[in-house]
Amino acid sequence: MLCLDQPFQQFSRNKRPNMMTTSPPTADPYLQADIRMTLEKSDLWKSFHNIGTEMIITKHGRRMFPHCNIGLSGLQPYTNYVLMVEMVPVDNFRYRWNKGQWDVAGKAEPQLPCRTYIHPDSPAPGSYWMKQSVSFLKIKLTNNTLDQHGHIILHSMHRYVPRFYVVQADSLHSVHWGHFHSFSFPETSFTAVTAYQNTKIAKLKIDHNPFAKGFKGENSQSYLFYTFSPTDLQRAKLECEPAEPRRTLGSTGKESVAVLFSPWTIEQDPSQSQSLHTELLELHNHRQDYSTEEQMVPGHSSRSYQPYRSVEYGRLPSPSSAVEVCESRRSCEPHIPDVATVPGHETTKSDPLRDGCHRHHPMVPNMPQDYKLSPVHLPLSSRTYPGPLGYSYPLHGHYPTDPSMGQWGEGGAVHYPGQYLPPLPFHTSQTQTTNHSANQCGGYHLGNTVAEWSWSQYMSLDNEADLTVRPQ
DNA sequence: TCGGCTCGCACTTTTGAATGGA
DNA sequence: ATCCATTCAAAAGTGCGAGCCG
User: Fold this and answer.
1) How would you classify the pairing of strands A152-153 and A140-142?
2) What does the record list as coiled-coil region(s) (predicted)?
3) What sign has the CA pseudo-torsion A338, A339, A343, A345?
4) How far does the CA of A460 sit from the C1' of B9, in Å?
5) Closest nucleotide C1' to the C-alpha of A61
6) I want to staple A333 with a disulfide (CB 3.0 to 4.6 A). Which of A95, A151, A254, A456 is the partner?
């Protein structure tokens, strides 16, 4: 089964072993694919996660803090990749802050159009992505459903987790969406809020976010002394340094630190938690035969993340899952992730690595319409879910396939208890792809420098019928 | 009445243009 | 003429609190 006791150092760029040759395919699913992603500043993320991360969302868009900074390894140096991230609902609940803890306040709001943020440097060669850590600093979150700036639209008082995609693609104009890997980091989950509910989170942000230094009072750190261990304090002290340059060589600085789950998940109604736990276990049993390509990357200590790769297809109205559910509801319109970009987040710097290859600016206003077909364009074989964990699958594409390309096979997904994620958005058939192009409303429209794709209204799963849908 | 949201404020960092010197 | 470092103002990001709204 899964070997979750691997020291996290194994995943760091510099020390990773060649798992493809030294480990049996099923030994460590999230290492099967040679592509590895590490979360930079994971300690900072965990500091927030331990309290219950909250992210402010505003009408005009708010940056995330901490922001997502990842390291990549195992990419083909001269192959182009597109990096994307989307915010995936963690569960199907709406929350409220009640007496110092998060309580479930009912069913989640209907899903909003899912926007996938494409890293503005995409596409770029693997060597470029691996050269330094990749920052998603400029992602902006909004609660404005009519947002025209391409920000990621979220519901307040709902929980999300960023999911990263690494897609082999020559350019945004000819994306090979079949070759992708996805990664999630449990400690990056957060609750979207319009105002901070937990004062500890606000103080932690003030302590770490340089923009908020103006609110740093004498008492701002006092709570730390009873919230964190001396180790945490030392770590927090180190992390108080000024923000690093946007793209710096990654230094994961991984330590072997126990992963602590956020108390807020425990603080919930015990009966609710028990119910969820039971459901998750049941789902786990149900889904043994399925896997997504997602790799749930554990924290420093993987021990806390029990192998769990179940995906609640029916219950979770994930934008990503909509397509799959739709497959059993042929009359509905499929959902395709919208594409969110950030105005002004354009790469102007010159980089020999990148300049040496053919690339197009992601926000090029005249994005060809065929691009909108790409995100879900998979061979028919992808219609079904990937096989059992540990198998590699032949991939299409016009890149020479060397023996190491086996690593492109989608690895299994490793989830952890207490959190389940929807399936990936790219499981679909060509038929559905066709429907996408037919059903999208107005193709894509552009505002300023933002390329935004608005497909038809994704189906709403906000009804009981959806709860019974199961993947075939 | 209350929970959630919006807006303006003061403060900070970041960014880029302007300037001057080598 | 070019390059580099410095300066400075504008832009952008931040949490807080008052007030609004359903």
Assistant:
1) parallel
2) none
3) positive
4) 40
5) C13
6) A456
C-alpha of A307 from chain center: 18
- Report residues 111-140 of A contacting strand C, contact meaning Cβ closer than 7 Å: 138, 140
Q: How far apart are the C-alpha atoms of A335 and A458, rounded to whole Å?
A: 4
Distance A441 CA to C5 C1' (A): 52
DSSP characters over A145-194: TT--S-PEE--TTEEEEEEEEEEEEEETTEEEEEEEEEEE-GGG-EEEES
The rounded distance, in Å, linking the Cα atoms of A17 and A35 is 12
CA of A464 to C1' of C9 (A): 57
Q: What is the pLDDT along chain A (472 residues), one digit of tens a residue?
A: 222 222 222 222 223 222 222 222 322 333 335 899 999 988 999 999 999 999 999 999 999 999 999 999 999 999 889 999 999 999 999 999 988 889 998 889 888 777 889 998 888 899 989 988 899 988 999 998 888 888 999 999 999 999 999 998 887 776 655 577 899 999 999 999 999 999 889 989 998 898 888 887 644 443 333 333 333 333 333 333 333 333 333 333 332 222 333 434 433 333 333 333 333 333 333 333 333 345 666 544 333 232 222 222 222 233 333 322 222 333 333 334 456 554 444 333 334 444 333 333 333 333 322 223 223 222 222 222 222 222 222 222 222 223 232 222 233 333 333 334 444 433 322 222 223 322 332 222 222 223 333 322 222 223 322 222 223 3
Protein A348 CA to nucleic acid C1 C1', in Å?
24
DSSP letter string, A216-227: --TTTTTTHHHH
Q: Which residues in chain A, range 267-286, keep a C-beta under 7 Å from any nucleic strand B atom? A: none
d(C-alpha A13, C-alpha A356), whole Å? 24
Cβ of residue A193 lies below 7 Å from strand B: yes
Total residues found in chain A within this entry: 472
